[in-house]
Amino acid sequence: MLLAVVLGLTLHLTVMLMVDNKPLAHAAHAATPNWLQSMLNDVGHSVGSMFPGLGHLLLLRLNPISLLALGQSLSVLTAKIFIDFDELYLADVAGALFNTALICGTMLPLSIYCGKILLQTAPEHLLPLLDKSLREVSALDGVLELKGEHFWTIAFGSYAGSVHVRVRREADEQEVLSQVHSCLSSQINDLTVQVVKDDLIIPTAPPTNIPVGVVSPTLPCPPPHQTHSHSHSHSHSHATPHSVVVNL
């Protein structure tokens, strides 16, 4: 039993370390650390104050699948020891329950991360960089407003995004496109930018033609203490904006 556990664990760790699984490595790095990784991190900080070399080793963020294999192997060996020495067969049930909880707790962050990819949500680990890049775009010369920005993951390590940029009428569209792409291209692989020029036209009131000889009636003025004035003016202007859509 002991030999089978050691051989299985060795084979598993060898495959995990030797095979370059980029999707799994990306998901393990981008997902939220699980409870086992957080516990090892806390232990590493505590041990690092006394033994710097060992503490640095524990601070490494190991693959969650490898940690899961280590935890299950230790659980199986512990249950085997209790059964062989004390004939405590309840340890087998306790080990199975522990392994079930270990699988759920370890794989939950990876499942949540993959679910967010399917829902096309914004990648959380890129949000600080995206916020900084969007602030830089808002400060560009000629940019009035950013709206409709949306970023999502299309594959492991590949991201897409779209944004609408409203600029002044005299702004150079190609120059704005180039600057926006320069600010966001380091985080977003497939970027779609729509530039909308601010072509608002202020309408003028049409002249009122009063026929000759027609006198407008004069309304009596109300008493001073009963004066009420209500002015409602509504003006609507609809201008078709000039937009340019470029998929970079």
Automatic annotation (TrEMBL):
- GO aspect biological process, one term: zinc ion transport
- According to the UniProt record, where is the region Disordered? 218-248
Q: What is its main location?
A: membrane
Lineage top rank: taxon: Eukaryota
Return the Basic residues bias intervals: 227-239
Instruction: Provide GO CC annotations from the record.
Output: Golgi apparatus
**What residue stretch is flagged as signal peptide?**
1-27
Q: Classify the protein's membrane topology as the record does.
A: Multi-pass membrane protein
Q: Where in the cell is it found?
A: Endomembrane system
Under the heading InterPro entries, the entry gives: CDF_SLC30A
* Keyword Transport appears in the UniProt entry: yes
What keywords are annotated for this sequence in UniProt? Ion transport, Signal, Transport, Zinc
Asked whether the keyword Glycosyltransferase is assigned, the reply is no
The record's listing under PANTHER family reads: ZINC TRANSPORTER 6
What is this protein's record name? Zinc transporter 6
